[in-house]
Structure formats: C-alpha cells, structure tokens
From TrEMBL:
Upper lineage: Eukaryota, Metazoa, Chordata, Craniata, Vertebrata
Peptidase M10 metallopeptidase domain mapped to chain residues: 1-72
Protein name in the entry: Peptidase M10 metallopeptidase domain-containing protein
Keyword Metal-binding (UniProt): yes
Keyword list, A-Z: Hydrolase, Metal-binding, Protease, Zinc
A molecular function (GO) term: metalloendopeptidase activity
Cellular-component GO terms for this entry: extracellular matrix; extracellular space
Native source species: Sphenodon punctatus
Length: 74
C-alpha cells in the first residue's frame, strides 16, 4: 500500500482519537466543496478522482462514484 512506496506509516485509530490524516469516500456534494472554489464538488464518473488537504485539516477525499479496486484485477 502507500507505506510501501512512501516514508509514511499508516495505522487505524479508534474514532475517538484524532488522526493526522483521514481518508474517506464521498459523493457529489460534500462539505469542502461548499466553501472552497479550489475544490469543486465531485463530478461523478471520470473527471476528478480525488482531492486532499494538508494537515492540520489532513483529509483525503475519493469520489465514491468511481470504480475503485484493490490490487490489479477488475
């Protein structure tokens, strides 16, 4: 995964503990697109696949309308 190709380490934390980076899958209209002209809402299939924010916000958003796979097969 990402830790194999970066100097970062990843671990799952309980929901009550704050994390440096949170990762989630979102649909068209999610909160950051309401406030930022730099990050429009997701556009459905194709187009924008994901966007991210550096800490302290530290969020990675993936477009939930895309076809995501784990590994190399479909």
């Amino acid at each position: 995964m990402w830790s194999d190709v970066s100097p970062l380490s990843f671990r799952r934390l309980p929901a009550a503990r704050p994390a440096d980076i949170t990762i989630g899958f979102y649909t068209f209209n999610h909160t950051d697109c309401w406030f930022s002209p730099l990050h429009p809402c997701f556009d459905g299939l194709n187009g924008e696949l994901a966007h991210a924010f550096l800490p302290p916000l530290g969020e990675i958003h993936f477009d939930n309308h895309e076809f995501w796979i784990l590994g190399r097969s479909r």
